[in-house]
Structure formats: structure tokens, C-alpha cells
Design brief:
The chain is mostly helical. The chain contains one helix and no strands. The chain is flat.
Length: about 110
């Protein structure tokens, strides 16, 4: 009852083939095989991007706008957290004052 029952390994069924023997090939140093001439690389189908002064100015302006917007969002989030913390602190002070005055009356 307390002894574990180990499963028995079943015998293989069907035909068992012996492993194939791999015969090594010999490498003879000597004449290299001629390779086909390399084909020239195809021309790119997409034209290269040319940055004009106007485009560079537009990119700089767009990047500046993105940085300003992200900065404004982060600062507003920081201010929201600070205002929440200040209001929680004021509530804690009011509750502490109320509880202290209640304890004095008893």
C-alpha cells in the first residue's frame, strides 16, 4: 500500500532499424572552384531624403513643440500630486485637532 508503483517500460513495437553508418569524405586542397561573377546591386527604388533648411526648421520646431507639451503635462501632474498631498495633510491636521479636543473634554 505504501510502496510506489513504478511504470514498466514497454517493449518497442514495429521494426527497429540499425543506425546508418556515415562515411567521411576526403577534402583535397587544390584548385578553387570558379565562382559566378557578382551581379551589381540594384538601385534603391526609394529616393534619398534631402533635408532643406525649411524642413530642418520644421523638424526643430516640431520637436520643440513636443518637448514643451510633454513638459507641461508632467508639470501639471506634479502640481496635481502636490495639491492632493497638501489637502490630505490639512485633513490629517483637522482630524488630529478634533480628536485631541474630544479627548480633553472627557
Amino acid at each position: 500500500m505504501f510502496r510506489p508503483k513504478l511504470p514498466t517500460m514497454p517493449q518497442p513495437t514495429g521494426q527497429v532499424t540499425p543506425p546508418a553508418v556515415v562515411v567521411p569524405t576526403t577534402i583535397t586542397p587544390g584548385t578553387p572552384t570558379p565562382s559566378a561573377p557578382a551581379a551589381p546591386a540594384p538601385a534603391p527604388s526609394r529616393p534619398t531624403v534631402q533635408l532643406t533648411p525649411g524642413t530642418a526648421l520644421a523638424l526643430v520646431g516640431g520637436g520643440t513643440a513636443v518637448v514643451l507639451v510633454v513638459g507641461a503635462v508632467l508639470v501639471s501632474m506634479l502640481l496635481a500630486v502636490a495639491a492632493t498631498a497638501a489637502s490630505v495633510a490639512v485633513c490629517a491636521l483637522v482630524l488630529r485637532s478634533l480628536l485631541a479636543s474630544e479627548a480633553k473634554r472627557r
